[in-house]
């Protein structure tokens, strides 16, 4: 709980609060993908691989630029924590903060996932989502957020007087990345980053602004699909929180596997070009 304000409201407080907000990054200036072209090209794609993400574990896969991958709910409501890297350069990785600033707190079809500085370019485009009907609920909740971090053993230790738990998404992603990259665990850990919370339903409470979660509306058969703009290495953790209706960082919740399906297209979206590296010259004015 935050303390009641120490400072008395100024006489024009209501006036100041009534100023209408402006969108930080108006989408009129953000190049948006031609979603119809992506979806038309997707129609003839062939599934070439399927990866099982076991409950409370993570798995990895690679997908070449121009291919698609689909995260599928299988046996029951389950949330997944997604990390993305350039397949040949772990330093180019998903930047959820800028992805959020550009697209909004929750992602859906047509949104693009951006990579870290100095690359800052689209890594993937969301082309399909069977939960796109959900929108925002009465609590301000929505699915597929880029606002959370990932459940991790450090926060757990902080909040549980030193409790040790090794199947947090952070730990699962670390093990999966170590295996995929051949890096020692502690080196791999440094590359693990904030996630897309696939299928998770989250928001901020209106009164206190606290991050909340609620039971995911995902059901078996639902999926979220991405088009790979660049060669990607993906890592996905099936969160120990299960549907995230109650708690995570424990073995208490019912958990289910997730599937990742890789699709090879028979053609590329019309007009599509691989995204170039960011054009900033990096002189920083010197
Ligand atoms: Zn988690």
Automatic annotation (TrEMBL):
Pfam families: DUF1989. InterPro entries: DUF1989. Residues 52-233 form the DUF1989 domain. This is DUF1989 domain-containing protein.
